[in-house]
Amino acid sequence: MADIAVQSGGRSDRIVIKDDWPGYSLDLFNSPAHYSGDLDSVYIPHGVIMDRTERLARNIMDDLGDHDIVVLCVLKGGYQFCADLVDRIKALSCNSSSTIPMRVQFIRLKSYLNDQSTEDLTIAGAEDLSVLTGKVFNKQ
Fold first, then answer.
1. Is-contact 86 104, C-beta < 8 A?
2. How far apart are CA 75 and CA 86, in angstroms?
3. pTM attached to this predicted model
4. Average pLDDT per consecutive 10 residues, the chain (140 residues; last block may be shorter)
């Protein structure tokens, strides 16, 4: 674990995993049999991802207070993370004195045609994003 650096310093705390870090041994985890032979190691355990997702939800609650938010989920790859984040925000909101009104919108990005990457980026679902008009985007 010495190869993982945890940098501290206020709200910008983050976990940095070096590019050459080999990951955790598969012997430390239970994995489905259908992954046998496909995995070499585990880079980020599920528990760490869920902990960081909860931390992000807490940061959102702290930063936004009772302002409403629109969560923009990019399908398909971002769905599970988005669902986990929204669930954590809801749970924290239920156990807090502040409630965040929240809406979730979905878009799909496409830059492939068949199996070839193109320079064109198509956004599906963007026609219903008028809800974002006048919103301030936090780029932290």
1. yes
2. 15
3. 0.72
4. 45 76 91 90 91 92 81 88 94 80 87 83 77 62
pLDDT given at position 53: 94
Distance CA 128, CA 131 (A): 7
Helical residues (DSSP H) of the chain, grouped into ranges:
46-64, 79-94
- Both tokens assigned to 128: 């219903």
Are 41 and 30 spatial neighbours (Cβ–Cβ below 8 Å)? Answer: no
- The residue with tokens 């990019």 is 74
* Tokens standing for residue 89: 């925000």
| Edge-to-edge strand ranges of the sheet holding 69-75 | 69-75, 102-113, 116-124
